[in-house]
Write a structure and sequence with these properties.
Arc Repressor Mutant, subunit A, DNA-binding, 12 helices, 7-stranded mixed sheet, alpha/beta
């Protein structure tokens, strides 16, 4: 009967591509990984890999075994999650968040985590989606709260809440005219850089049209709102958070013929981690407090 360690060594070698990456993931030696894979091959009487340079490439039998092993490992994780109480790993947790979370509900989540796990030491990193996901894969952070990325074989994703966006302009703009995609594409757009999910949203939403002019590339929502309010261009901003600026007349919401963009915010953490149950519990706490409305409006003027 294949052991959990044998299946785990095979799965991570197949997923990460090299014995070195697998051994680092499992905090063991390459020789231990090789031994476990050979034991699995002997038990199943198949060859799982062929060697190509530094990489291990799955054989046809290896692909078939991988499809069967992955759900078994997931069931193992589910068993631990169901019957083993979640606990903070060594009372330390590094969490990555994007700006909109940092300026809205991050402080509330921190309060809830400290109430549920007294003594926990939190490290908070604020960054862009692509940067946070890479930090998560490198184990620099253990959990990332960000715009939901495409499915990744190494990551769990727990959806939290939808973030509604709105196109806005300065006070001089007409708030009764309904704009088509070409109208907006021809206006100067203040946008974030390519690592931001918002930047991709602009491009996807405007397709097949392309923005003619990007006046500024800024990674601050507050600075973006200030520049839009000053008449420097238009932008697409979180609806709930910037509603007070629209209500006060400092921003004008632009009506569009196409439904305005939306993003799903999610909590991401690594699969098959020994603390998966704890990270899932943190994700549930995040879901309970997630809100993109301003807790205390700070003037963007």
């Amino acid at each position: 009967m294949p052991s959990h360690r044998q299946m785990e060594a095979f799965y991570w070698t197949a997923t990460l591509g090299t014995l070195n990456a697998c051994s680092e993931k499992l905090c063991t030696t390459q020789s231990a990984v090789i031994k476990r894979i050979r034991q699995l091959e002997q038990t199943l009487d198949v060859r799982l890999f062929t060697r190509t340079g530094r990489h291990n490439v799955l054989t046809d039998d290896g692909h078939a075994v991988l499809r069967m092993v992955e759900p078994l490992l997931q069931q193992h994780d589910a068993l631990l999650q169901r019957f083993r109480a979640p606990r903070a790993p060594a009372q330390r947790l590094a969490i990555g968040v994007t700006e909109i979370t940092a300026i809205t509900w991050l402080s509330l989540m921190i309060e809830q985590l400290k109430a549920c796990y007294p003594g926990i030491q939190l490290k908070i990193v604020i960054g862009m989606r692509a940067e946070l996901q890479q930090m998560l894969l490198n184990n620099t952070i253990q959990l990332s709260i960000q715009q939901r990325p495409p499915a990744h074989p190494l990551l769990h994703c727990v959806d939290l809440r939808e973030l509604r966006l709105m196109w806005v302009g300065g006070p001089e703009m007409n708030n009764t005219r309904s704009h088509c995609l070409r109208d907006l594409a021809e206006m100067p757009i203040i946008r974030q850089n390519h690592e931001s999910a918002l930047s991709q949203v602009y491009d996807d939403w405007l397709h097949p049209h392309k923005a003619d002019t990007a006046v500024f590339t800024i990674n601050s929502l507050i600075a973006t709102a200030s520049l839009v309010s000053a008449g420097q261009g238009i932008s697409c901003l979180p609806e709930e958070y910037f509603a007070p600026m629209v209500a006060s007349g400092r921003l004008v919401r632009l009506l569009t013929r196409k439904q305005q963009p939306r993003l799903m915010y999610s909590a991401l953490f690594r699969k098959h981690d020994e603390h998966t149950a704890f990270y899932r519990e943190v994700a549930h706490i995040a879901r309970a407090v997630c809100s993109f409305a301003p807790t205390q409006w700070v003037s963007a003027a």
